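Continuing the series of single-chain predictions for the mutant panel. This is the parent chain; the variants come on the following pages.
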Amino acid sequence: MAKKGTGYFDRKGHFFKTAREATESDLAALLGQIGDGESLAPGIAHTLLERRSDLERLFAEHDEMIVDVSANGGSVTDLGAKVAKLPSRPAV
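Parent structure:
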């Protein structure tokens, strides 16, 4: 007897049983081929989805830093007086 079910499709139209699998497929496609041979993208996509809240927090912190730089005239604080210059060495 036939049964009713729910399925999910990634952006390429491939069917998946769970929304998580479909999203991981989309993330892997977005990342493209990573590494030689079999791509590392599916594993990275899985990790990205697993660590989503941490990543969102990092991006929010990054956005705050960018706003701070823009508010300061678009330049990073001058560290010239705080950084020691190393003596130059002759080329060997």
